[in-house]
Write a structure and sequence with these properties.
- With about 400 residues, the protein is α/β, with parallel strands linked by helices.
- The protein has two domains: about 230 residues, 3-Layer(aba) Sandwich (Rossmann fold), CATH 3.40.50.300; about 150 residues, Phosphoglycerate kinase, N-terminal domain (Rossmann fold), CATH 3.40.50.
- The protein is built from 15 helices and 19 strands.
């Protein structure tokens, strides 16, 4: 079977304005039903590229083809039936309902007088339903929240019945709920209606999880392109954005702020119990040592992302004596030990031995374990352990201990 031709394709494209090239040599093929995302730092040229692809800016060099035809040679009405654009600028039209805003998308189809037929009305209502905005149809557009307005803009674009939709920062200024809703709508349209979607985003985590293909823009060129899982190694996004004081973990889809201060507290973590404490204590401006963590433990990964001092053991291996000695020395050096309440088992039983030793040796110990578990796990040393209820309690206790040594 013959493959469908690209919905959008570039040839020798340089994008910019006023004769000045911002992004050069853009090689792009967008296929039917594909979702492509441009990623890059502020000022890298993402919006300029999108405007060029949409025909709003003339290429500095080269050409953009939409459904096989050069975009600048398309009649405006034909282009509007093929391509819809959703930009970051918000409409400011008073006394206009959501239905009326959405119906503007039918303009290429309604002829000179713009009168809506019964079929046009059906399409407008369907577009509102698809965009999750049907309940807003009778409301005035200006009264909507940012998230609701974005849904209406998508509905208006859908009312055009395009084959391609181009969006510039569609999740900008939205809360997390509306970010997810907008991206789910676009993913569904791509999947169910074979609509081609090209967008630029700053929400890296959502983009990498929702988009089929990404283009990385830096230093005036497409530095790399492909499927997110093929491009995103441990340092790709950190290099792309020039991140030095934080680390973006592509596997976990999150950014951790680095904390390479000299350790003031030793946190015994495991199975995710240490991570909230790492962040809490880091916000206090205190350096952290942590362990003994197996390398396949989520706390170990987060701690390494944060540049903490980590005592790590090989995955699925019993804790070795040299690791135990390293952890004990760090506990003694800091003088403050925090028990995160980690689940104890055969592989990490040495951590409980270290905690009992710390409590018995006069080191200041704080624990998040339920009070009924302290006696069983610490024995007689439990009387030397200060129990707290939460990460906030740990920060208060640490603050008190530091201020009153």
């Amino acid at each position: 079977m013959k493959a469908d031709p690209p919905v959008l394709e570039t040839q020798g494209l340089d994008s910019g304005y006023g004769g000045k090239t911002i992004v050069k040599n853009i090689s792009l093929q967008a296929l039917r039903g594909q979702t492509l995302c441009l990623l890059g730092p502020n000022g890298s040229g993402k919006s300029t590229v999108l405007r060029t692809l949409a025909g709003l800016l003339e290429p500095v060099h080269g050409a953009v083809y939409v459904c096989g035809g050069r975009i600048e040679r398309m009649k405006p009405v034909d282009k509007a039936k093929t391509l819809a654009v959703v930009l970051t600028e918000s409409l400011s039209i008073p006394m206009t309902s959501v239905f009326e805003i959405t119906a503007m998308g039918r303009t290429p189809h309604t002829g000179f007088f713009g009168k809506l037929s019964g079929e046009d009305i059906r399409i407008v209502n369907e577009a509102l339903e698809t965009a999750g905005a049907a309940s807003l149809a009778g409301r005035e557009y200006y009264s909507l929240s940012d998230g609701e307005k974005q849904k209406v803009m998508i509905a208006r674009a859908l009312a055009q019945q395009p084959r391609l939709i181009i969006l510039d920062e569609p999740t900008s200024h939205l809360d997390i709920r509306h970010k997810i809703e907008v991206m789910r709508i676009l993913a569904r349209l791509s999947r169910e209606r074979s609509l081609t979607v090209i967008l630029a985003m700053h929400d890296i985590d959502i983009a990498l999880k929702a988009c089929e293909h990404v283009l990385l823009i830096k230093d005036g060129k497409i530095s790399d392109a492909g499927k997110p899982e093929d491009l995103m190694d441990e340092t790709a996004l950190n290099r792309l954005y020039g991140i030095t004081d934080a680390f973006y973990d592509a596997l976990l889809g999150g950014t951790e702020l680095r904390n390479d201060l000299p350790p003031r507290a030793f946190i015994v973590g495991g199975a995710g119990t240490g991570t909230p404490l790492y962040r809490t204590v880091s916000r206090m401006g205190l350096g952290i040592a942590t362990g003994i963590l197996h390398r396949n433990d989520i706390d170990c990964r987060i701690a390494l992302d944060m540049s903490l001092t980590v005592v790590a053991e090989d995955s699925f291996m019993p804790i070795r004596e040299d690791k135990s000695l390293q952890a004990w020395r760090l506990m003694q050096d800091t003088g403050l030990v925090v028990d995160s309440g980690f689940p104890a088992g055969d592989f990490n039983s040495e951590n409980m031995s270290l905690l009992r030793r710390a409590a018995s040796s006069g080191l200041r110990c704080i624990s998040l374990r339920p009070i009924e578990h302290l006696q069983a796990l610490y024995g007689d040393a439990a009387r030397n352990v200060e129990r707290v209820e939460s990460s906030g309690g740990v920060s208060n206790a640490l603050l008190s201990l530091i201020q009153n040594p």
